[in-house]
């Protein structure tokens, strides 16, 4: 007997096991544990403090894989990082402290960011814990820790050594609100309404021309004009010169295939810069550079009397001025798509800035991406499309504070840029001078001793530390290297792809892309073997979760209502990985019911176990045992294959089906008689079978519902340690004959029981006997022991079809017809019907519309429709019998 509590109490079980695991090494990665490893490149989330259900889905997938591979005997590394740096934290810290970042020193500001971030991480860890995720917390990392950002710097240094990092003046995407450069991946296209202005440019020694633009505020930056070379309207005008209204600079008309002749008048102005097309034309035709915007989104001195206006104000004022001048021909509303900052939605501008860039080697990225297994496969296309659309190198410098410092210094004398050596990292170039000492270019400056000795004050030397910092994707794009132990344990040359990268589809253009780029560039390897992309979680109403819709479900809310073990199952069953998942309370509820059922199966089975059960040797298995063990063998193989293919939904569905239908509804019902009344050897076989099935199900299910399975495991005899360190079940009982026999037994038992219950009979009512007739071709050999116990009847097996006959046993007359027809004689007619031979009446019904009945010496003719004949089955012996159809043939029940 096991001492499993009567009722399933998830609250107690879950918090208890979360505490236990916290203090144990169950999830610790120890490569010496196994010849095979399974290393997961877990996403380091941005520490917002809120681990939402979308995270819940992504991390559930990771946890399923981690737990499955532990059971498979792999040494599993499931680390957890935090992608701490970045603008959102700076904005939050400014908000909560009511300061601007320039109100305090950079150091102080960083400290506030670190403090805020640590608190948010604790909140998210709490939710991770409550969902039962199995990270190895000894492998936790935070990108804001010097140990980590030193590695980011080192990877920067390595790439600079290979000329894949450079500093250059180049147009970059710029957010005028955040006042920083941003990468292409941080630009989001938004649709908005604008105005299309038609403006006349006066010809210089030639005719005027009319152009159309949505951005009159860029007129001061106009450096050229362009038309389509095939546009008849401008056939003779290429090379003509025009004067830009209000600002007076002269510009020339060029012909270029990239002009859309359908837009506006067919002639467009080229400015430095309105968009990326302008940048291309500017480079191709060697136009002047006339920047007109400041970093904070105002017009500069090139705008003359409009200097100082914000970009939006300038648009209106310049349009008005054009109108006053009489050169604004027309204006009309238009819909346009503009690039906006991912963080603040402000339309981005393109400014030419000296920045740090990382080379984008499209071929290398595509080659590595091609080597990776993408799950689902079509996510690969998204990466390819994005990579092929990249026009510019990756601008990695940001004009912010809370980020990895760029380890570089500029010589104040000659402008030479010196990059730190790997050994100097981590280094803050504004706190320390470079080890190199004198400028390698011009020889000016301090010796290393002088520069580093005097408190490291950068100002005492000729070196000016770089104040720009790195894009946070520089931090997170080296996670596979970090978790593999670079640079302490391995060199870049030793790097081998890790096993799994799980991530959301919303960060394919960023995290997946940058990781492929960086790992490829640094190691010439692909970063991972497999990438598993998860979808989003929609609200119970099928819409994207949002506060304004009121359809947000928080993980803790769902856990409190049911249990973490049930929530995890609902997430697994939401769909195949990659698809978006609709959160459904009914799935959580049904998972919760399933877990209660599981508890009850174990409770029942455990009542028949003792400490000797695991060691029962050479059990005398019966067909029912052989059948469920063969099914179990199949299920273990199938679930394993589904798990390997990341089909968590299919794996769990199969497992639940087996546990609930085959094991609980069929097998347990079949062997109850044997367990309670069987002889010791017969009982032992059922006990051993149940033990094998239950311990296997519990281990497989531990992947999805780790708490309840751990609790059960501890109560089962013959188990040691945590279920999460056990081995994946490997039953070897395939027996096709037993499966056929077992299915026939289970089907018969369930048909007879259903019939008893429909007939209002107690389920344990004794029957005279039950006969099973097998159609030709059906295997009619089976072991009747358990079936007989289950249906409370002797069982007879017969090949062929039963010889049964449907015989008429009773005739009823319809009084509502016979009454009015025969009035005072109606009673006699009804008696006559009752007294007649049912077979003879049935014969008359079959031969015509009229039936003649004898009553009190008279003959009465009745309409055949007024009579109904009851029939019953009779066996050859004449005994009354119930006939049930079965998949293998016929079941006869004799009461
Ligand atoms: Zn912004
Ligand atoms: Zn110098």
Any overview of this molecule?
ATP binds at residue 547. This protein is α+β, with helices and mostly antiparallel strands and 895 residues long. 38% of the residues lie in helices and 20% in strands. It folds into 5 domains: 1-15 and 605-734, Orthogonal Bundle (Isoleucyl-tRNA Synthetase, Domain 1), CATH 1.10.730; 31-82 and 132-163 and 362-392 and 475-587, Rossmann fold (3-Layer(aba) Sandwich), CATH 3.40.50; 188-342, Valyl/Leucyl/Isoleucyl-tRNA synthetase, editing domain (Isoleucyl-tRNA Synthetase, domain 2); 742-803 and 879-894, hypothetical protein PF0899 fold (2-Layer Sandwich), CATH 3.30.2320; 805-875, Signal recognition particle alu RNA binding heterodimer, srp9/1 (2-Layer Sandwich). The chain contains 25 helices and 33 strands. The strands form 11 sheets. Strands 7, 8, 9, 10, 11, 12 and 13 form a 7-stranded mixed beta sheet that branches. Strands 6-5-14-16 form a 4-stranded antiparallel beta sheet. Strands 27-26-33-32 form a 4-stranded mixed beta sheet, covered by helices on one side. β7 and β8 (209-213) form a beta hairpin. The longest helix has 30 residues, at 648-677. It is elongated. The two termini are 38 Å apart. Residues 448-459 have low confidence and may be disordered. The chain binds zinc ion (ZN) (2 copies). One zinc ion (ZN) binds at residues 411, 413-414, 416, 439, 441-442, 444.
């Amino acid at each position: 007997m096991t001492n499993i509590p009567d009722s399933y109490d998830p609250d107690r079980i879950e918090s208890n096991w979360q505490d236990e695991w916290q203090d144990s090494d169950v999830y610790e990665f120890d490569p010496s544990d196994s010849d095979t490893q399974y290393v997961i490149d877990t996403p380091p989330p941005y520490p917002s403090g809120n681990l939402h259900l979308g995270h819940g889905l992504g991390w559930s997938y990771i946890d399923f894989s981690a737990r499955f591979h532990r059971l498979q005997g792999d040494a599993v590394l499931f680390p957890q990082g935090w992608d701490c740096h970045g603008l959102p934290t700076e904005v939050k810290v400014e908000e909560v402290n009511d300061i601007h970042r320039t109100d305090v020193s950079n150091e102080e500001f960083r400290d506030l960011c670190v403090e805020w971030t640590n608190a948010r991480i604790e909140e998210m860890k709490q939710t991770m814990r409550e969902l039962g995720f199995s990270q190895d917390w000894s492998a936790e990392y935070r990108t804001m820790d010097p140990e980590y950002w030193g590695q980011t710097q080192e990877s920067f240094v390595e790439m600079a050594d290979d000329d894949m990092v450079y500093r250059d003046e180049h147009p970059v995407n710029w957010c005028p609100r955040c006042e920083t450069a941003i990468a292409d991946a941080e630009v989001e296209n938004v649709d908005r309404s604008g105005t299309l202005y038609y403006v006349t440019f006066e010809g210089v020694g030639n005719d005027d021309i009319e152009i159309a633009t949505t951005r009159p505020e860029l007129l001061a930056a106009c450096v050229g004009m362009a038309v389509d070379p095939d546009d008849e309207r401008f056939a003779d005008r290429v090379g003509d010169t025009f004067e830009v209204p209000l600002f007076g600079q002269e510009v020339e008309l060029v012909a270029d295939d990239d002009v859309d002749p359908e837009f506006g008048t067919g002639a467009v102005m080229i400015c430095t810069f309105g968009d990326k097309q302008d940048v291309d034309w500017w480079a191709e035709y060697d136009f002047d550079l006339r920047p007109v915007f400041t970093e904070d989104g105002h017009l500069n001195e090139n705008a003359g009397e409009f200097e100082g206006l914000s970009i939006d104000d300038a648009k209106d004022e310049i349009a008005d001025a054009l109108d006053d001048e009489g050169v604004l021909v027309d204006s009309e509303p238009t819909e346009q798509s503009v690039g906006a900052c991912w963080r603040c939605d402000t339309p981005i501008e393109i400014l030419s800035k000296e920045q740090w860039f990382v080379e984008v080697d499209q071929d290398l990225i595509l080659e590595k991406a091609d080597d990776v297994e993408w799950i689902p496969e079509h996510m690969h296309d998204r990466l390819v499309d994005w990579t092929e659309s990249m026009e510019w190198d990756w601008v990695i410098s940001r004009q912010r504070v809370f980020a990895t410092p760029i380890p570089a210094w500029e010589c104040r004398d000659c402008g030479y840029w010196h990059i730190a050596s790997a050994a100097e990292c981590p280094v803050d170039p504004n706190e320390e001078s470079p080890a190199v000492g004198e400028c390698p270019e011009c020889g000016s400056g301090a010796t290393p001793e002088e520069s580093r000795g005097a408190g490291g004050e950068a100002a005492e030397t000729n070196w000016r530390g770089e104040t720009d910092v790195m894009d946070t994707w520089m931090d997170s794009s080296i996670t596979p290297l970090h978790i593999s132990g670079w640079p302490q344990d391995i060199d870049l040359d030793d790097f081998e792809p890790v096993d799994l990268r799980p991530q959301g589809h919303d960060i394919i253009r960023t995290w997946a892309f940058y990781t492929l780029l960086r790992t490829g560039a640094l190691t010439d390897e692909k970063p991972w073997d497999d990438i598993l992309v998860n979808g989003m979680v929609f609200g119970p109403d099928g819409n994207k979760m949002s506060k304004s819709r009121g359809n947000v479900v928080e993980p803790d809310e769902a856990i409190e209502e049911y249990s973490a073990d049930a929530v995890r199952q609902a997430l697994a069953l939401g769909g195949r990985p990659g698809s978006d998942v609709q959160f459904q309370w009914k799935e959580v509820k049904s998972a919760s019911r399933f877990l209660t059922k599981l508890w009850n199966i174990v409770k029942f089975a455990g009542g028949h176990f003792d400490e000797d059960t695991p060691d029962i040797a050479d059990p005398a298995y019966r067909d029912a045992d052989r059948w469920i063990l063969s099914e179990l063998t199949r299920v273990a193989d199938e679930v394993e294959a589904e798990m390997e293919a990341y089909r968590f939904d299919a794996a769990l569905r199969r497992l639940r089906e087996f546990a609930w239908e085959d094991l609980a509804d069929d097998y347990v019902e079949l062997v109850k008689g044997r367990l309670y009344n069987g002889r010791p050897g017969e009982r032992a076989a059922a006990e051993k079978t149940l033990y094998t099935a239950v311990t296997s199900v519990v281990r497989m299910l531990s992947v999805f519902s780790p708490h309840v399975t751990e609790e059960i495991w501890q109560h089962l005899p013959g188990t040691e340690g945590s279920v999460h360190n056990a081995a994946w079940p490997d039953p070897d009982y395939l027996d096709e004959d037993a499966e056929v026999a077992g299915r026939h037994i289970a089907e018969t038992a369930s048909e007879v029981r259903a019939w008893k219950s429909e007939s209002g009979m107690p389920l344990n009512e004794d029957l005279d006997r039950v006969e099973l007739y097998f159609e030709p071709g059906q295997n009619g050999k089976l072991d009747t022991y358990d079936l007989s116990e289950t249906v409370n009847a002797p069982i007879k097996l017969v090949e062929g079809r039963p010889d049964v006959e449907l015989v008429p046993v009773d005739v009823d007359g319809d009084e509502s017809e016979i009454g009015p027809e025969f009035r005072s004689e109606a009673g006699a007619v009804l008696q006559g019907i009752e007294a007649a031979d049912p077979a003879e009446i049935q014969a008359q019904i079959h031969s015509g519309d009229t039936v003649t009945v004898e009553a009190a010496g008279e003959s009465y003719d009745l309409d055949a429709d007024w009579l109904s004949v009851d029939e019953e089955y009779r066996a050859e012996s004449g005994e009354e019998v119930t006939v049930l159809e079965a998949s293998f043939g016929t079941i006869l029940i004799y009461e």
